Structures are given as structure tokens and as C-alpha cells.
Description:
Blueprint: E1 2-7, E2 10-18, E3 24-26, H1 31-35, E4 56-59, E5 64-67, E6 70-71, H2 72-78, H3 81-90, H4 96-108, H5 116-121, H6 129-139, H7 153-178, H8 192-201, H9 212-224, H10 232-241, H11 247-259, H12 266-279, H13 284-292, H14 313-328, H15 334-348, H16 350-354, H17 362-371, H18 379-400
Antiparallel strand pairs: 1-2, 2-3, 4-5, 5-6
Helix pairs in contact: 2-9, 3-18, 4-7, 6-7, 6-11, 7-8, 7-18, 9-14, 9-18, 10-11, 10-18, 11-18, 12-15, 12-17, 14-17
Amino acid sequence: xxxxxxxxxxxxxxxxxxxxxxxxxxxxxxxxxxxxxxxxxxxxxxxxxxxxxxxxxxxxxxxxxxxxxxxxxxxxxxxxxxxxxxxxxxxxxxxxxxxxxxxxxxxxxxxxxxxxxxxxxxxxxxxxxxxxxxxxxxxxxxxxxxxxxxxxxxxxxxxxxxxxxxxxxxxxxxxxxxxxxxxxxxxxxxxxxxxxxxxxxxxxxxxxxxxxxxxxxxxxxxxxxxxxxxxxxxxxxxxxxxxxxxxxxxxxxxxxxxxxxxxxxxxxxxxxxxxxxxxxxxxxxxxxxxxxxxxxxxxxxxxxxxxxxxxxxxxxxxxxxxxxxxxxxxxxxxxxxxxxxxxxxxxxxxxxxxxxxxxxxxxxxxxxxxxxxxxxxxxxxxxxxxxxxxxxxxxxxxxxxxxxxxxxxxxxxxxxxxxxxxxxxx
Length: 426
Ligand code: ACO
């Protein structure tokens, strides 16, 4: 199968790649060479596939999301986060023995070098936890081998296990620093998600008992965020890793990319927006008008998605979960009412209908995080905790497929050649 591009009377025949869900991609990699310089231009990569990947399938028109072939709905209802992590990274659901070994290997690596505490100490208490987590993840390199022999499954496995073990400790430390709590190493007798909760919430002078409602809600949220194919942060991880930079620094770059309010930072931005609307008297119509006003930079946070153009399947699961968690925990949060009101108005509004703007995964996730007692500045860190296995699996796939260094082209629009003018003549 081929496609043809015609330019200035010449035809270029290009191979077409077919995916396992019948998606076609025109492989333009030979175009520049055969045409003597012609490239394709695609701002924001809206129409460009950067790789072939066997990890996550999503169909934005039909609202389908699958990890390694398994639907997100089934995984969210039945699996543990660690099972999903294993599935994403190694390609198959683990057997009981495989899962036990995986978890036990992670537990053995769950201490972080004490020297790391000095680095954490250097941050002001007001530092945003995302900046702290990104820096600490990068700093992990100083205490662990900087390069992984990607030809060795064993070396790759060791590195992955280390990161899955230490990253939650760093995330919990970032929160404890931010909230003025002494650092904690958790408890290896607990499940992976329960241990995250304990590391975050254990008070120095009290026992910590895991609430099963909280644990199950967090398990679901982490699964829903675990991978989303070539999104901004994942593409960042792949492109940084494509220079053969190590796993930890590639993930640190992913954390930075996730921080932005148009990506993972949206969950914090949504709750801040809902709070602001509440403080302003709850007039949702005023904010709908602001979102539609092209002169106003305000956007309805938690609405719209680059790929989902009908609905975000994760948002459906999360909306139901938000209702359940608030009921189970006996919490009445007025911002839930504002969120539902905004959603209803937006879904009926021509501006949003025309642009296919629907609530995304993070429209309701902040409401759950808040109900679980997680501080607002930690919301995006929770997203990063969920996305970690996705980033790892994408980095591993990229290195094992021996992908070339990521290096896009450009169309230059600057000044043409001009003679240098000495300083005293300018
Ligand atoms: N509120 C108001 N208008 C919006 C919104 C919004 N949330 N999102 C998109 N639009 C409008 C744009 O202004 C544009 O209008 P125009 O065609 O009249 O110029 C049109 O819809 C298309 O928007 P783009 O920004 O071109 O769409 P893109 O695919 O590049 O962006 C994005 C997707 C970044 C998610 C965008 O919808 C947005 O900014 N949403 C709010 C932030 C957010 O919730 N991000 C989380 C995404 S999910 C995730 O990362 C987990």
C-alpha cells in the first residue's frame, strides 16, 4: 500500500503503515531525501505519528481507551494499579507469582539514600511539589547507575523496579515537606497503593489505618492515568530518552512536561477555577461567557482534549467515582454542584458543541483528590504517580525498538543572510 504526494509536477510514492486497529499512517521518512528538501509541517503534531507502539490504543471519536488490548473500564473495575503497571511495562497481565515477585522486588528497593534528604532540605517549603519531584527524580541518578544496558532485560528490570519503588517515596516527601511533616519511608507490609497513602498521611504520633474507600478510589485514579499513548509528557519522555539519556532523567523531564496547566496541571487548575467561581457567587454563566470570549485568556479548565472528540472514557468513570467517594466518605463538597452545573451548560452550549469540547479526565479528579484529603498542589503529583508506569513502558519500548534520536525539522522564517555590523556602527 502506498500514498502519493505531488509537488511542482513531481510525484513521490510513500509507503503506508497499517496498525492493528486498521489505522493508516503515511510513512514520510524518505520524503526529504527523495524530493531534495520537502518536509511536512504539523504544528503541535496534531496529525503526526511519532512512532509505532503496541502499548495503548485510543480511538478519540468512539471514546475507546485500551492498555495492551484491555479496556480501561474493565481494568479500572477489576485490577490493582500494580497489575496494570506490570501489564503496561511487560505486555501481559501478571500471574499471581509474577505479581508477588514484582511487588517484593519493588519493596526491596523502596529506601532512598539518606543524602537525598539534604537535597530536599535545600528547597523552600513553599516550593511547588511538582518542581521538587522533578528535581529529586533527576537527583536519583547521582545515587544510581546513570546508564542502563538496554540490551539486558535484567538491567532494564532492575532500573524499572528501582524507579517504581523510589518515585512514590519522593512524591510523598514532596508533600510532607510542603505540609511541614517529618519524612516517612512507609511500610513494606502494605500493598503498593496503601503504602503510598501511608507515606503521605501517617502522622508522626499516630498509627495510620488505611481506609478501604480511599485506597480503592486512589487505585482507580492511578489506573485511569497510567498511560495515554503519545501525549505531551510521554512524547517528552521518549524524545529525551531517544538521545540515550537514562530512564530517571527522562522521567524527570516527563514530570516537568506534565506540570503545565494544559496537560496534567489541569487537575489543580480545575479545582482552583471551581473555587474561584464559588467565591464569586457561583455564577457559572459568567465563566461560560469568559471561556467563549476570544479576548479573554480564560479557558474552561478540564474541558477539551486533543484526541477525544466525543467523550473521554476516563471522565465518565471518574464522574461516577466522584459521586460514590463523596457519598461513602460522607462529604458534601459545594464545588461538585458547580462542576455538574458547568458541565451541563457546556454540553448544551453551541460553542462547546461546535468545537467538540467535553469534560476530560481531570474535570472531576480534583474533587476526588480533595475528598481523599490530598492538598491541591499535590494533584498533579498524583497524576505523575499514575502516569509513571506509562512513561516507563514507553521509554522501554522506544529504547528496545532502537528508535533514532528525536529531532524534528522546521521551516525557517527568519532574516536572510546579512553582513555583520560592528558594535560601534549600530
Ligand atoms: N475552554 C474554552 N475554549 C476551548 C477550550 C476550553 N477548555 N479548549 C479548547 N477551546 C477552543 C479553542 O479556543 C479553539 O477555539 P477556536 O477554534 O475558535 O480558535 C478550539 O476550542 C480548539 O482548541 P485548541 O486549543 O486548538 O485544541 P487543542 O487540541 O490544541 O487543545 C487542550 C487541547 C489543550 C486540552 C485544550 O482543550 C485546553 O486548553 N483545555 C483546557 C486545559 C485542560 O483541561 N487540559 C487537560 C487535558 S487532558 C490531560 O492532559 C490529562
